């Protein structure tokens, strides 16, 4: 009986030990340590853009004008900032829609990195046209991470794999996501986002 008690105690200790060393939940990529960050945001609905929680729609097939439904997060200057979120296209009869942007602010305000999605699931960098990945088909969840080390590099990860590294000039930036008609695109589209997190270091 004492032997059984000793075995039970050992097993309990092993289980407790495993619980202690289990990794902290979090899917962020890149070398840490990272600190959680909670920037504020505003919402932008223009043209036929509509927002409901984390669902972003373009309800029209208009191929011109400002058609957008986006969240725009607070501006940051300097440092290293990581965005993470998962998007799922739930319906799409249009094509070439922006779903995530890293935007420059301040005196150099303007588009910097734009992740676009085509009908059929191709994901590409709108600035330059580089194909980054495939698989953003209707009903499929895709995780996106961007790491902007201001003054050094901006990196894009799709489902945890590094897909693009470009130079990051010094200055101010902010993150946006949702659905936005690119200059060559049109809706309709419905995009659902989830698991949105930010880190800095």
From TrEMBL:
Keywords assigned: Signal
Gene3D superfamilies from the UniProt entry: 2.60.120.200
Signal sequence coordinates: 1-27
Name listed for the protein in its UniProt record: LamG domain-containing protein
Highest taxon, organism lineage: Bacteria
Keyword Signal: yes
Organism: Amycolatopsis rhabdoformis
